[in-house]
Amino acid sequence: MSEVIDQSELEIRAARLVDAAKKAGADACDAVAVTGVSLSVDVRDGQVEETDRAEGDDVTLRVFVGKKTASVSANVLDDPMALAERAVAMAKVTPEDPYAGLAEPYRLVKNFPDLEMLDTTEVRAGKLADLAKEAEEAGLSVAGVTKSGGASASWRLAGIVLVTSHGFSGSYLSSRHGLSMTAVAGEGTAMERDYDYDYRVFLEDMENPADIGRRAGERAVRRLNPQKISTRTANVVYESRAAKSLLGHFAGAVNGSSIARKTSFLREKMGQQIFAPGIQIVDDPLKRRGAATRPFDGEGTTGLALDMVEDGVLKHWFLDGATSRELGLEPNGRANRGGSGTSPGATNLTLSPGEKTPEELMKELGEGLLVTDLIGHGVNGVTGDYSRGASGFWFENGEPVQAVSEITIAGNLIDMFGRMVPASDLDARYSVAAPSVMIEGLAIAGE
After folding, report:
1. If you average pLDDT over residues 111-133, what whole number do you get?
2. How far apart are CA 290 and CA 205, in angstroms?
3. With bands split at pLDDT 50, 70 and 90, how would you rate the model's confidence at 2?
4. Listed range (8-22, 169-183, 235-249) with the worst mean pLDDT
5. DSSP state of 320
6. d(Cα 25, Cα 20) in Å, to the nearest integer?
7. Mean pLDDT along residues 112-132
8. How many CB atoms sit inside 10 A of residue 28's CB?
């Protein structure tokens, strides 16, 4: 569908709510209104199984009475004053938060760049069904694929409006297009499944559905007849899809909230070499057509690109206003809005690629484990201890020779980060983007 959400009414509602809160006795306040519409189509065996469309609006008012704060939300804003009075009354009886407050006025965004966040291409259920059917058909055509696990195509349009009592008013819209296919290979208890997908801001950037389906089928067939391997220490290459999880663990460890709570294994590592020389990790909220791109953060402030890791050295935490005040640091525009307030987090986080392909790295190693899938969440954020279930392929002479499963990889993330070598196959589509990475000498628990 081609409708583009008109945010003017939401902007009016948010402004009225801010005015009402000031009249009700708030010293400061902000209102955020979010809206969205989405459409998805699920296909199995060439037939549409489900079509789902959703729409919704939500407005949240946050008020400050001195250093006390409270938030209230509503789907319908019939009486702004009643909502504002309730929020102010709640704030007056809450404990003080010494770090609470709006962003400093000098940090507020004044100009909104064109970041190519919105695709106005017409999208209808029939078009989504055709994309999903094409992906499924291609997956089923792969020799060895015995059935479809289904295919899904989706479209979403989301908008946000933020108005504050100290003069900020801004809004933006973003679009998302997604397509995935799951293929099943083998029969009975020997069945294996795998998937492939794409996720883009602009429909024109999406990969060919047939390529997505074909890769899903090929991945499923490759997984047939997996074997267990004996417990050992081995060289490990994380496929790009799996390597993103390592970057995600890093993002959690450099989150300002974790640093303030002293629950991060990197809390004493600022300014230190935690990766090998040459490693670069960048977070960029202004990346054009990026999956997590935004012109302003949840406080209305500018977030510029940050070299989180430069030449292997840790340079920044992710900070919003509250965590920066608590830590005595300058905020860096990483406030995410959610629930009753903000919390810091990454935007478009990218591990820069290396010079060698994954195949070249495996050839240099000779033998080892290629990890294609990880299971569970076995990471201790305080110590960095790492233990994840995994599956993939054992390789010899640089070539995969046997599918393996039911194994566990263990180590410590500080040590793993220090020995990480990125490959050249960066897939930059997603909000957390990483190439394949090699880590030598990890413990593998098998039979």
Report:
1. 94
2. 12
3. very low
4. 8-22
5. -
6. 9
7. 94
8. 19
Q: Where are the alpha helices (DSSP H) in 262-386?
A: 321-327, 358-365
Residues 6 or more apart whose CB falls under 8 angstroms from that of 300 comprise 30, 103, 108, 109, 162, 164, 168, 170
Beta bridge partners, 432, equal 349
Name the packing angle between helices 80-92 and 8-23 (round to 10°).
Answer: 50
Helix (H) or strand (E) holding 412: strand 399-412
Distance CA 136, CA 128 (A): 12
Q: Is 392 left (phi over 0), alpha (psi -120 to 50) or beta?
A: left
140-to-7, 53, 128, 149, 217 alpha-carbon distances in Å: 43, 27, 18, 10, 7
**CATH architecture, range 8-219:** 2-Layer Sandwich (3.30)
Alpha helices, DSSP H only, in 292-437? 321-327, 358-365, 413-418
Threshold 0.85, pTM exceeds:
yes
| 438 C-beta neighbours (distance < 10 Å), count | 23
Tallying the residues shown for the chain, one arrives at: 447
| Helix, coil or strand: residue 172 | strand
CB contact burial 241-279 (16+ within 10 A = b; e otherwise): bbbbbbbbbbbbbbbbbbbbeeebbbbebeeeebbeeeb
Helix (H) or strand (E) holding 249: helix 240-253
- Angle between helix axes 125-140 and 209-222 (nearest 10 degrees) is 40
What is the tens place of the pLDDT at every residue in 169-216? 999 999 999 999 999 999 988 899 999 999 999 999 999 999 999 999
Query: What amino acid is encoded at 303 in this protein?
Result: G
> Can you give the pLDDT at residue 43?
98
- Look over the chain and give the mean of its residue pLDDT values, rounded to a whole number: 95
Indicate the domain borders of the chain.
8-219, 227-447
